[in-house]
Amino acid sequence: MQLPPKVTDRAFARLAEIGASDQGQALRVAVEGGGCSGFQYEIALDTPAADDLVLEGQGQKVVVDAVSLPFLENAVIDFSDELIGARFVIENPNASSSCGCGTSFSM
């Protein structure tokens, strides 16, 4: 059985700060082919679809489509607020390597 990704309190708190659910939006985390390492993360606010896995916390939602789910098994979706910028980040135990941009990885 696949373990779904986990979403940190920080990530849910950031979604609450920007009022995502108030606008009927969720944070969509998807995996697509491309990027410098073979796969890349697509992270955006989106409307949940019927076949999405929905992860809920603090009144907010993070959604993952069925195709992306195997790539994100047991991953952690977090929010990082550092000097270089604030962004949602993915800690993915399935990635064998990743690149400096933080959005591309290989398996």
TrEMBL record:
<protein>
    <submittedName>
        <fullName>Iron-sulfur cluster assembly accessory protein</fullName>
    </submittedName>
</protein>
<feature type="domain" description="Core">
    <location>
        <begin position="6"/>
        <end position="102"/>
    </location>
</feature>
<dbReference type="GO" id="GO:0016226">
    <property type="term" value="P:iron-sulfur cluster assembly"/>
</dbReference>
<dbReference type="InterPro" id="IPR017870">
    <property type="entry name" value="FeS_cluster_insertion_CS"/>
</dbReference>
<dbReference type="Pfam" id="PF01521">
    <property type="entry name" value="Fe-S_biosyn"/>
</dbReference>
<dbReference type="GO" id="GO:0051537">
    <property type="term" value="F:2 iron, 2 sulfur cluster binding"/>
</dbReference>
<dbReference type="InterPro" id="IPR000361">
    <property type="entry name" value="ATAP_core_dom"/>
</dbReference>
<dbReference type="InterPro" id="IPR016092">
    <property type="entry name" value="ATAP"/>
</dbReference>
<dbReference type="GO" id="GO:0005506">
    <property type="term" value="F:iron ion binding"/>
</dbReference>
<dbReference type="GO" id="GO:0051539">
    <property type="term" value="F:4 iron, 4 sulfur cluster binding"/>
</dbReference>
<dbReference type="InterPro" id="IPR035903">
    <property type="entry name" value="HesB-like_dom_sf"/>
</dbReference>
